Amino acid sequence: MIFINKDVRLKVVLLLLVVTINQSVAQKKAGVENSVFWEVSGNGLAQPSYLFGTFHLMSHRYADSLTQVSSRFAAAKTHVSEILLDSTMSGKMMTAAQLEGTTLDRLLTPEQFKQTNDWLQELSGYDLKMFNSINPMTIQVLLTALLQQRHYPLDPIKDIAMDLYFQQRAAKEGKQLIGLETFDDQIHAIFGQFTYERQAQLLVATVAEKDKALTELKSMNKLYREGRLTQLETLMADQVYTPKEAAVMLDNRNKKWMQQLPGIFRQQSTFVAVGALHLAGENGLVMLLRNAGYTVKPLLTK
C-alpha cells in the first residue's frame, strides 16, 4: 500500500491475516463462560498454561493494562500465536492480495464501485482507483481497519497491534515462539476458498450496510473490554459467511491447532494468544480442550 509507511503497513497486514477470520462465525453454537482469559490444567500437565483471546484492532497499551494477563504471560516459558509475524509478511500479503486476470472495477458495478470509493474517501481521503488491482476481501478488511481507526484512534507509529506486541515481548524475554499455522494456511482461509465474485459480494454487502458495520464495531469494542465472549459470539452470528465458509475460516483451524496444543502444553507453561472468537462455541478451543480431558477455567484479566 503506497500511502502508508512500513510500520503501519505491517499492522494492516496483521489485520488482513486475522481480523477477517475472527469475524466469521456464521451460526450460533453452544457457548462457554464469559471470559477472554483461561487457565488450562489437569490431564497430566505438570504446570498450567493459559489461553488469551485477543482483539486484533486494539493496541499493546490495552494489553498492558490487564495485570493478570501480563503476570501469567511473564511466567510462561513458551508463547504461541496464530502465525509468526516478521518483516517479510508485508510483501507476501500484498502479493497474495493482487487480483489476477481482472480488476476491482470489473468485479463491481459502476454504482458499487462508486459507493465503495465514497466510503474509502470518507475514511481515508484516498481514491479506490489506487487499489484497482487489489482483491475485494483486502478492501473489505482495510475499510474495517480504517473505521476502527476513525472511532478508536491509535498512534500509527507508537501503538503496536496486540498480537504483534505479545510476539515481540516474548522474543525480548527469551521465550520459545511457536506459530500454530503457516502464512499459506491463513492465506487459504482468507482468500483461497473464495472466488473473486464471492469476495465482491461480501464487500458490497459490507458497504451497503456501513451504518450497521459501525454499530457492530462499537458493540464489539465494548463487549471485548467487558470480557463478554458469548455476546461477542452472538454478535458475530449475524455475519454473512456461509456455514461452510465459517468452518474453513474458524472451526477447522481450531481442530487442527488441537493436534499441536496438547504436546506444547506438556513441555512447559505456555501462553496462547489467538483471536477471541477462537475460544468460543462448541468448536472453540475452550470446549475442545475440555472435551480432550483438560480443566479449563475462566480467569479475571485484571
TrEMBL record:
<protein>
    <recommendedName>
        <fullName>TraB family protein</fullName>
    </recommendedName>
</protein>
<dbReference type="InterPro" id="IPR047111">
    <property type="entry name" value="YbaP-like"/>
</dbReference>
<dbReference type="Pfam" id="PF01963">
    <property type="entry name" value="TraB_PrgY_gumN"/>
</dbReference>
<dbReference type="InterPro" id="IPR002816">
    <property type="entry name" value="TraB/PrgY/GumN_fam"/>
</dbReference>
